[in-house]
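Long-time lurker. I teach an intro course on protein structure, and each term I like to show students one example going from raw sequence to a predicted 3D structure in token notation. This year I'd like something fresh instead of my usual example. Would anyone be willing to generate the tokens for the chain below so I can use it in lecture? Attribution to the forum is fine with me.
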Amino acid sequence: MRTIRDYQYVLKQDRGASAAIGNFDGVHLGHRAVIEVAKSAAETLSAPVGVVTFEPHPREYFAPAALPFRLMNTEARANRLEKLGIRRLYELSFNAALSALSPREFAQNVLADGLGLAHAVVGRDFRFGKDRAGGAGDLKRFGAEMGFGVTIADLLETGGIEVSSTRIRQALTEGRPGDAAAMLGHLHRIEGEVIRGDQRGREMGYPTTNMSIAGIHPPCFGVYAVRVSVLTGRFAGQYGGVASIGVRPTFGVNAPNLETFIFDFEGDLYGAHLSVALVEFLRPEERFDQFEDLIIQMNADSAAARAILGA
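-- Reply from a regular --
Happy to contribute to a lecture. Here you go:
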């Protein structure tokens, strides 16, 4: 997959794509339905299939002090899109210049002249241009005028409920990763680099990997059975584990993080990139007055997670 970040400097080989357009936070089943339409159009046109998205998320740009809401960081979104067969990721810089474009200017300057799209696919609720003034119907009209096709995809429902990033966030907030996965079409994953922690787990017989959750919507604080993909380094592979998301109240005041104990693993993962999938919520985060009580609970958590994962 090739990543293009500036619509004003696009190589000839990266033009002419059939692309789905949106933020694709979570890359859920609704997003995948839009992508499948773009893939179908790409086959018809003998064109590369792409996704047009924005970084930072426009909501982050306009409200930088708001609480984190994203389901995925940039790395995780790119990894998921590549797995879905995307060949061109137009990850456009969302800035003052881009946000000031009118709907017509966005269609002409970005999609037609800049990226040279052959076809664009958007959801029925798609909004674009300054003040979100343009809708899907406007894009279809502009496309006919400017030389690119437009398909408006219906919103996806499951069980009579519209699949949305908002509903997925709610499920994760309530400790329901299974319900989130049903809407995502895959387990919810947190991806990033392993950073150095306080190494308390090692002292208790539970060496863990630490990852920041800054910038993404925090799932319900607590302990989870997880599946771990080590994406880089000599230990790359798939593992089972048990993870804690939260502030580690037993050890004082700490920034929220993801701390994972990987079953039957020995090795140094500092600097490696991991993808940790939440399989099942085991219990809420607790504070323990005695380390011995914490270790007893960690033993029970590990046993429960092993039973769930068959590890």
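Some talking points for your students: DSSP finds ten helices and 16 strands in the chain. The radius of gyration is 22 Å.
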